[in-house]
Amino acid sequence: MVKPMEISTEDYRALVRDKYNGDQHADLSADIARLAHGEPLAYVIGWQPFLGLAIDLSTRPLIPRPETEWWTELLIQALKKQYPSAPFTLLDLCSGSGAIGLAVAHACPNASVVLSDIEETHRSAIEKTMHHNALDASRIEVVAGDLFAPVAERRFNIIATNPPYVPDARELPQSVSDFEPAAALFAGSDGLSFVRRIAREAPAHLLPGGMLWLECDTTHTGEAEALLKSGGASSTAINEDLYGRPRIVVSYYA
Q: What CATH number is associated with residue 232?
């Protein structure tokens, strides 16, 4: 079969391997047309790898990024050190595809995880991911609503969140702006509208000694840290992503 010229060799191989199980005779014409119009490869394939899991993207949530995978692995390492055997609870806030929380549930059998997102439609994709990866559904709960509203008065040992944080006026690559959900990307003129709410509301949903891991825009990490401190964090630390950019604020609460 002649390799189409419209897509790169790397994308072609990934498409055949990950969507058609290596079938070199598969009809890729529809997929090639989608890619030619700029649609992200992950949506065309239908899933994205993330820390050993295949994350279903059938409801078209935000595609998990390498930066998020990087710090989620760091989070898992910290959790295994802090909770080697004792049970703990984690809230994946603004969960989207559920990649963060599901990766924690997969790596930590002592974790109970709640996935919360404003979009109820992502529940079906999360359930597919759980089924396809044989995750323990008894330790995973999926809820829907605005930020902390679905968890009411509940408290957790850890909150992990990748909220919308892109300033409204920022131009994004066309493959992102035309295909990925704007509601999962943009967050006001400075990109901090969700961070402000999380900083203010998170302490009421953390147990004593709890932690908050927050992904934010690299140009506003300092502002995000300041907001978390003013919101009640007893201490904070900024972590870099895999590209050496300040990306994650970790907050600790007494």
A: 3.40.50.150
